Amino acid sequence: MSTLPHCPQCNSEYTYADGAMYVCPECGHEWLQDAAAETGSDEHLIKDANGNILQDGDTVTVIKDLKVKGSSLVVKVGTKVKNIRLVDGDHDIDCKIDGIGAMSLKSEFVKKV
After folding, report:
1. Where are the domains of the chain?
2. Theoretical Cys-Cys bridge with 27: which of 8, 10, 17, 69, CB 3.0 to 4.6 Å?
3. Tens digit of pLDDT for each residue in 17-75?
4. Which residues cross the membrane (predicted)?
């Protein structure tokens, strides 16, 4: 019986160790072995493109032009987004952008101000 933890994203039991990381072959998620040991809770940290930890209410800047799905609008590089709200899911930031309105962003396309 394997003593490796289940995948935190898809709960797969088929994880394996690769150096200092655990890897899930089903969803491709990778996480540090130390992170699983030291955080006994299911707390999920959301980080920006530079690795800074984001929190509710932070101000971030967009680092890439982002097309708004279903529209011809574009969120330009350098757009400041104030008072973000973190949520679970693929797009883990909910926010309001001036001139566009409410939308969701991926944390990998923003940096903390």
Report:
1. 1-38, 59-112
2. 10
3. 888 888 989 888 888 877 545 544 445 789 999 989 999 999 999 999 999 999 999 99
4. none
- Mean pLDDT score, 91-108: 94
Q: Show the tokens assigned to 82.
A: 């104030």
pLDDT at 45: 86
* Beta bridge partner(s), residue 17: 22
Q: What is the DSSP letter of 5?
A: P
Distance CA 19, CA 81 (A): 37
Closest to 59 in 3D by CA, of 87, 100, 103, 93? 93
Question: Are 55 and 43 in contact, with CB atoms under 8 Å apart?
Answer: no
**Count of Cβ atoms closer than 10 Å to residue 46 Cβ:** 18
Q: What pLDDT sits at residue 4?
A: 84
Q: Which CATH architecture has domain 1-38?
A: Single Sheet (2.20)
Residue 52 CB burial class (10 angstroms; 0-12, 13-18, ≥19): middle
